[in-house]
Amino acid sequence: MALTLKLNGETHTVDAEPGTPLLWVIRDELKLTGTKFGCGVASCGACTVHLNGEPVRSCQTYIEDVEDAEITTIEAVGADKIGSAVQQAWVELDVVQCGYCQSGQVMSAVGLLSENPKPSTEEIDDYMHGNACRCATYQRIRAGIQRASEILEA
Amino acid sequence: MTINTSRRGFLKGAAAAGAVLLVGARPDGALAVASSETTQFNPFVKIDADGTVTAIVKHFEKGQGPATGLPTLIAEEIGLRMDQIEYEFAPSNPQVYNNLLFGPFQGTGGSTAMANSWMQYRQAGAAAREMLIAAAAQNWGVDAAGITIEEGIVKAGNQSAPIADFVAAASQLDAPAEPRLKDPSEFRLIGNESVRRKDSAIKGNGQAMYAMDVHLANQMVTMIKRPESKGGIANGFDDSASKEIKGYISAAVLPNQAGVAVYAENTWAAIQARDALEVDWDMSGAETRHSDQIKAEIMAALDAEPAYNVNKAEVAAVAAAIDEADKVIEKTFYFPLLAHAPMEPLNCTIEQTAEGDIVLHDGAQMPTGPHMAYQQIFQLPPEKIHIKTMLAGGSFGRRATPDADYQVEAALAFVVTDRSRPVKLVWTREDDIRSGYYRPAFGHKVRVGLDADGNIVGWQHQVAGQSVIKGTPFESVLVHDGIDHSSIEGIADSPYAIPGMALGLTDTPKATTVLWWRSVGHTHTAYTMETMMDLVAEAAGRDPVEFRLAHLSDSSNADQIRKAAVLKLAAEKAGWGNAPAGRAQGIAVHKSFGSYAAEVVEVSGDPEDGIKIEKVTCAIDCGIAVNPDVVRAQMEGGVGYGIGHVMRDQITLTDGTVDQFNFPDYEPLRIGDIAAIDVHIVPSAEAPTGVGEPGTPPSAPALANAINALSGTHVAELPMAENGISFV
């Protein structure tokens, strides 16, 4: 069935059955590949996108539930000042290794800083718990969020 | 600055000729040069007529840094800034892009990417520099000795010009036989803290392209329905329910009957159609064993006469010395099967060109593996098969299978089609956890005797487990006298001076396919050696650091000197012996892949209510640290990988079927699990050695030793969470 999505500020009409995870529409239909498939069960966070500014796992978000929402993916989050600060911090600190989870890490980090501009270490660990990184770049993720917070404060 | 007056004309001529400067090597290793791009000549460095320099990186990038490190070597020798060099991944060519430590085989593994490329890529860069300088000398009529290249600018006295001006002329020169390499005192990029990763920005903004991101026109997505237990055979299928799924195309039994390929228009349709498919399985030859049986086989082997006396020890004499010792410390260890679980599930895409060539798009860790397999499957000569290496979302060994497992699976799924549409094979996380290759299960039994003065008089060490190498094409190279060195590495070649060492090994049957897993045998040998060292030191009434140093005291032995040095550095930086109240420290040190790593883990809490990992301090000697920050990152990651798995992960079997499914029951390390990691690099003038793996081996035993120091609980069977230790 035809569905209308508002994604990264544009309106897209896609052909997808109800029950289709948003992840596969973003990746396979819209060919925006920055949003990653890692587990399919909302256990790793690689597929994190924003729904009306809130991070959600797109592998467990169904297409029929997001028709009226503003969806933002990693490809567009840098246009926002928090997204831009997080991406700048990620480069400054060379947070990434393999990088496959990092789109999701950045999207969650932006979500955290949007609601808490100066998170403590404990608050970072709590908020980012669901974003797995098999390369274990965690301490740089923590430092990256703190650095982004500084950039935003300046 | 004076710009050479002939520059404009020079550039024009170069552009008209389309000349590029390519520096590579002949199959015999000698440097070679070409002036135009052809598929016949595969270089290490390419300089376009406009001066754009590109490093051709022969190792794949899974996060460990060669896409930064190899260009650094070339930029250093030519005289460029890091923003003046780009990189591309090399095509498959085992004659030119082979790993120099693997023979005629192109591949990444064993923490060798920098170690084997160090001289080769520097020589290519140095040759390019000398040729550009020779061309400038000719053009300017000055002595080459007075010409330098810095930040991409060729200079002699008051003359200067960008390297672009000399590309065409340089490309007509012969390669120097032995270009002069820069002295370390001249290094500006190698060892420079300010050199950043070249792949950071694209990995933080979604632009990085992994194999999973390949979308070829008209491609089909295929998933394989595999048997629940290894060895099941597909006889046929019923796809009537799959046909109800929109986007389902068809299904076909793979030619080897190892599974059924389901083809669909997109990934979600493939997932659903595969779920709906009913397969007629013949499970008569399938694996039926339980994890307990695998463990029982290993434990029985530990109690029996070992198949191999690895170090040709006088076993009876060693046993007698231990029997007569003042104190005997005895422990039996068990290490379960483990999955690699790289973040990007396995996948690759295969297509046939109009000319009948086969192209594989893959995060290719060992291109030579699928390249050889595809010659057989497609009955094509090697030059008709092309491998496009994409970024890889981790590996930890999983993408380097001796039988090119998933690439062969994709080829089999492709050959049964009419080949008009590209086929993209995708594994789900469940496929990865349940159908995978695993770190083998291993057991160790160690008996150590101490005399009245606390000196070791005998160390009898039995190892039993499933050989990674036997039964693979690497057996003839890597197995000697029946002994798979990867089963006992880290013990047989330990730098420790241990009197009365007797090392025995027995191979046990494989119930699953087993594979090297980040640091291979060191995953279990370091744990055993280093927790035993603590237990023995404790029995001798000696400090763990001092006791280890006493077995690394030969001042004529470079191995012992370097191992002792990292041990001392880690202890010093961690404030060894001065843990804050309520905390305890554990230490471990291990040599692997030519590098020496020591780690101190500091913990608080208790095993019942939860251990908290407060801090890990690491010291690493990897020779020259080409990129210190990448080295630190690899230590941080290696520590996390080692600790994450021993905390709570294992793969178990029930009636031959894997019990775990996905991350919820194969729980990855999470951000809160390790509060801080602090890495210190030993300054060195030695050639670079490995960094991808050496951080992993000491991490788990250092944690175990810290928990023992805190609570008196020594964990000898893993994972810890299943053996009395909880974590917060």
TrEMBL record, chain A:
Catalytic EC class: oxidoreductase
MF term (GO), any: isoquinoline 1-oxidoreductase activity
Keywords: 2Fe-2S, Iron, Iron-sulfur, Metal-binding, Oxidoreductase
Record-annotated 2Fe-2S ferredoxin-type domain positions: 1-77
InterPro entries named among the record's database cross-references: 2Fe-2S-bd, 2Fe-2S-bd_dom_sf, 2Fe-2S_ferredoxin-like_sf, 2Fe-2S_ferredoxin-type, 2Fe2S_fd_BS, Beta-grasp_dom_sf, Diverse_Oxidoreductases
EC number annotated for this UniProt entry: 1.3.99.16
PANTHER family according to UniProt: BLR6218 PROTEIN, OXIDOREDUCTASE WITH IRON-SULFUR SUBUNIT
Stated name of the protein: Isoquinoline 1-oxidoreductase subunit alpha
Automatic annotation (TrEMBL), chain B:
Entry keyword set: Oxidoreductase
Sequence ranges assigned to domain Aldehyde oxidase/xanthine dehydrogenase a/b hammerhead in this UniProt record: 205-285
Organism: Ruegeria denitrificans
Gene Ontology molecular function: any one: isoquinoline 1-oxidoreductase activity
Record-listed E.C. numbers: 1.3.99.16
InterPro entries: Ald_Oxase/Xan_DH_a/b, Ald_Oxase/Xan_DH_a/b_sf, AldOxase/xan_DH_MoCoBD1, AldOxase/xan_DH_MoCoBD2, AldOxase/xan_DH_Mopterin-bd_sf, N-heterocyclic_Hydroxylase, OxRdtase_Mopterin-bd_su_IorB, TAT_signal
Gene3D superfamilies in the record: Aldehyde oxidase/xanthine dehydrogenase, a/b hammerhead (3.90.1170.50), Aldehyde oxidase/xanthine dehydrogenase, molybdopterin binding domain (3.30.365.10)
Stored SMART domains: Ald_Xan_dh_C (SM01008)
SUPFAM superfamilies membership: CO dehydrogenase molybdoprotein N-domain-like, Molybdenum cofactor-binding domain
Protein name: Isoquinoline 1-oxidoreductase subunit beta
Keyword match Oxidoreductase: yes
